[in-house]
Amino acid sequence: MKINKLVKSLALTAGIAASFSSHADFVDFTVDENYAAGSGSTVVADKINGGYVERITFDGAGNFTASAFATFGQFFNGSNSLNSGLNSTYSLYATFEAQGTAGSQGNVEFFVGDTGGFQIFLDRNNDTGLAVEDDIDSISNTGDDVLLGMSEMIGENLATSSTVEGKTVTAFDFDFLDFSLTADGDQYFVSPQPFSMMVNVNGDFDTFSQSGEQIIRGDVSAQFYDVPEPSTLAVLGLGLLGLGASSRRKA
Fold it and tell me: Does the structure show a pLDDT above 80 at 169?
């Protein structure tokens, strides 16, 4: 069974850590901040960091639906944060959704998306947000916003929450395939060309129970890559590798 294989592989920390290298092909991209805000220059980055709020609903039969609103506040290149107009003169935000199955095995709770999508927007006036806190349906001040790119196809993905030696580790790693830019997106993401590739969305989340409707928050990063390789468990492996090493030392 696919879920069993995914969950069992969480224990194989060496193999998980090795899978992280499958995303060594994350690509640098260049954005034109003059197009975004009427001033500024180009910025070369390989990652966008931010935070998100998500509504996830469980139907009691092992299925879930989720929708999230993310705001991005910082470009990175490697481990270096970049000074730019992002989050000061203009904003980027994203919406993403997924539907799939949820369950648990041992001390691991897991979520796997069957379908989903990702959209990223430019907010030139830096004023878009949730009108009501934690209400995903209350996004306001969107009249001047521009859709830059989207994907309507979810790829390899997994989210887990596990407790090891009293410490809870939460993480998710989702690939969205066939990400493509709109005509406006081509004016903002100016390199590489063409910019039709994949987007990897990963991060962590608050702990919650698999019942009813839950509102959660967490950190999120978005990176692009041009080879459709599996990425499942990439982020999870880093945390679990450290926990595994700690457990072996104590043993």
Answer: yes
Burial class (CB in 10 A: 0-12, 13-18, 19+), 248: exposed
Task: Report the mean per-residue pLDDT for the chain.
Answer: 84
Counting beta carbons within 10 angstroms of the beta carbon of residue 165, is it exposed (0 to 12), middle (13 to 18) or buried (19 or more)?
Answer: exposed
pLDDT grade for 227, boundaries at 50, 70 and 90: low
For residue 230, is the peptide bond before it cis, meaning its omega torsion is within 30 degrees of 0?
no
C-alpha to C-alpha distance for 153 and 156, rounded to whole angstroms: 10
pLDDT tens for each residue of 182-209: 999 999 999 999 887 899 999 999 999 9
Determine if the peptide bond prior to 192 is cis (ω within 30°): yes
pLDDT at 177 over 70: yes
How is 47-91 classified by DSSP, letter by letter?
A: EEEEEEEEEEEE-SSSEEEEEEEEEEEEEEETTEEE--SBTTTBE
Name which of 236, 220, 191 is nearest 27 in CA terms. 191
> In sequence order, which ranges of 105-213 are alpha helices (DSSP H)?
183-188
Strand stretches in the chain, DSSP E:
29-32, 42-45, 47-58, 63-77, 80-82, 91-105, 108-123, 129-130, 139-140, 146-151, 153-164, 167-181, 189-191, 197-203, 213-225
Taking CA atoms, 111 is separated from 37, 138, 163, 211, in Å, by 38, 26, 16, 13
- Burial readout 84-120 (b: 16 or more C-beta within 10 A, e: otherwise): bbbeebbbbbbbbbbebebbeeeebbbbbbeebebbb
